[in-house]
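Hi L.,

You mentioned the student needs an example of a multi-chain input paired with its predicted structure. This one should do, with 789 residues in total across all chains.
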Amino acid sequence: MTVEILGITVLWVFLFGYIVIGAIDFGAGFFNAYSLLTGKQRVLTDVIQRYLSPVWEVTNVFLVFFFVGIIGFFPKTAFYYGTTLLVPVSFGIILLAIRGSYYAFETYGARGHKGYSFAYGASGLLLPASLSIVLTISEGGFIEIVDGQPVLDYWKLFSSPLTWSIVVLSIAATLYISSTFLTWYANKAKDVEATQLLRKYALIWSLPTIIAAGGIIFELRKHNPLHYENIQRFWPMFLLSFLLFLGTVFLIWKKRQYGIAFGLLAGQFLFAFFGYGASHYPYLLYPYLTIYDSFTNQAMAVALITAFIFGLMLLIPSLYLLLRMFLFNKEYVKGKKDHHA
Amino acid sequence: MRCVDSVFYSRVLTELTLSFHIIYATIGVGVPLMIMLAQWVGIKKNDEHYILLARRWARGFVITVAVGVVTGTAIGLQLSLLWPSFMELAGNVIALPLFMETFAFFFEAIFLGIYLYTWDRFENQKKHFLLLIPVALGASFSAVFITIVNAFMNAPRGFDLVNGELINVNPLLAMFNPAMPTKVAHVVGTAYMTTAFLLAAIAAFRLLRGSNHIYHKKALYLTLKVGFIFSVTAVLVGDLSGKYLAEYQPEKLAAAEWHFETEEDAPLILYGVLDDGEVKYAIKIPYALSILAHGTPNAEVIGLDQFAEEDTPPLYIHYLFDIMVTIGMLLLTLSAVYLLGMWRRWPFVKSRLFRWLIVLSGPLVFISLESGWWMAEVGRQPWILRDIMRTAEGATTSGQVPTMLVLFALLYLVLGIGSVVVLRRMFIRNPVEKEIADRQQEKGGDIL
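Structure written out for the whole complex:
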């Protein structure tokens, strides 16, 4: 394995991490706001807040890690993506800011401020959409080089069916991942009402997720034939992903083994995400940027990988401690005691 | 062709984001140390007041951390969005500290989550105290690594530039550049100092506003002690920073001191105004600049005459320098007088007037912080990477920067107002007297 592939794999893993835990977070915000509208807040808010409290900051770090890492390993991405993404990513930052501050403000100050809760919920849907634009652009066809500077063609971007398929997928998947996780979590908390409601959401959102995922492959056929061809080479990964999807839906339908159902779901997205990533190889931005011509110098690559290994030795035990104290702590999950500062 | 407007608005937006971010970031670096100290003193003295102090600070800290995290994410992304060519070049050399900063931040985030949600969960308070060490370490090391990135922009090292290409990159050499020791020491030291005076101002304010609880007196004494120590280090490191500048970045020192002609026995100019190239109403301290720059009164100090005009920073940074230094000195004196007064039992340090002065130190220390950063940053204009890349060459070519500037200004307004409102509400609704009473009830009266 070359350093380039190692670098992009590490980053892809972190992006995957962000997509899963970010989706739980975004979806939770949406369900929370939705429950306010439908008067079911009493059922959901407790479960959602208990999960989000100790982890909201950690979620954010996964994203920071990804974008700092990609500039580190592939500095040329700053030039291409930085110039073109000013508007969509700035919107993303603002939405993230609303979320991050909401959480702290809500917990300690303005508990029950409805306007802010709705802004929080709406940001949960808009964020995946604004961030997934990056994936769309990476397929190529939306950026032109004018006078040596990359320029994004907004009209082309917004009129492309590929853009909208990716947006739909990101939103549906967010709600699907989130509701499946929260079903498991509510069940662990022995909160029957919340479990039932969340289980219903999980089943509702499973269908659009899988349809949108299929739609994207179809769109790619026209938009980026090379990528479409590559995807077919990885068909076993996508097939496996689909089978795992069926497994998750089956377990949730049968009200069995929510923990395993969530595990299967993670597997489904893992295979799809890595299949998608592998078939994108070697392009970071089709057709301008491959992982080879944008890679950093050898000395920096070695330094970054060394830092990464030492960093992980610090992080993995810490993350394990965090999970053990909250996610897997029976007393905490059931909300027996409130120990916050 | 580059869009002049984009360069200007990119600078304004970066300045706006950073100026807002450093308020929360500085608190974020300093408060964990203060919480740690309070918790430690509380455990050692078996004094519930200090534990409560730690707890109440931690609660306020959550709000500032949240704003610090989101604005930090903003500036992290804006670096690439607004300065893509710069990041493309610098990313090759300086990615390592940026990357390590995320690890420090990650580490802090994990333990902060655990610390905040495990109050009263441990039988042994010392276990809970241990959680604070990674939080404080992570916070301080974030500051160290990110300051290293900034130091690199002032003194780029660790690579060779041949025909516009970077070769022979040495990431460690780039990190340990000449600007790094003084920058890091000054940033971390003043972050502790800033936080100490902020928390002292709050304690003094509560004492003035009716509450005469011993809790606030303890808080005041603890914070001003820390404030004094770090004011001393700020002054010492400030002096070393002057010597660094004289050696490596003489144009910044010369602009900050209005030192136009290269000369020996250079005097230090304090205050004054610049009128058509002439300095008026200034106080001149003979030899002081030579001492600041080289440690001896007769040393030669390079003046602005040695530099081409397009390579010199704007001269208004002199005012920023004056503001920073004056406030620093005032706060050092204030805390020294307070400590001396407490020791010698002078009654006036407990007077209302003196306490108002301490309250004033809270806003002042932040003015000093902002002035210091503006001076340091404007002082390296016109370069984004000194002697390598001009600021205008690093900026984005996108035409949408002005719109984004408006959006972000609105965002910071909302966050600024929101954080103040929430913090005020949090502490006014639940004053310390009430919390102590609640805790006494909870524990059956066996504390305090």
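You could point out the following to them. Chain B has a mean pLDDT of 88. The first helix of chain B runs from residue 4 to 45.

Best wishes,
N.
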